[in-house]
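Figure 2 data, in text form.
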Amino acid sequence: MKKYLLTFLVALIIGFFLSAFFLKQYDDFEGIKVVSSSGENLYFIQYGVFSSLESLEDNTINLQNYVYNKQDNLYYVYVGITKLEENAKKIVNYYKSLGYDAIIKEFGITNKEFLELLVNYDEVLKNTDDKTAIASIISQTLIKYEEVVISGG
């Protein structure tokens, strides 16, 4: 009986330390909040991936707005967000016309407030080809994403 009790206590202690370690990983999260398996899928327009924050800052100096996500010690920079694939292509083409390469990535998010705001931005973006309007919509979308999703308020 005593040897089972000792085994149980050791397993309990190890389990406690492992759970504390894994929970600590989420406390150190930096960057945008995306969930890949739940919520509504959105198209994020990725500008680049950088190995350090300094490199990110050096390479994004000419961008008006962007958000980034730190994952596996790499910084992923996103310059547009939309629900519609045709809008994602429009944003990519907008950046290509400025001389920047961009690719489309798909993530799911669960923030209902941002998803509701995005419907309006997407509708306006879908109905315009004016570069100034496109730039403004992209900028406003990223600002709202940062305000509502990243900052949480």
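Caption note: Helices lie at 2-27, 53-59, 85-97, 112-126, 131-150.
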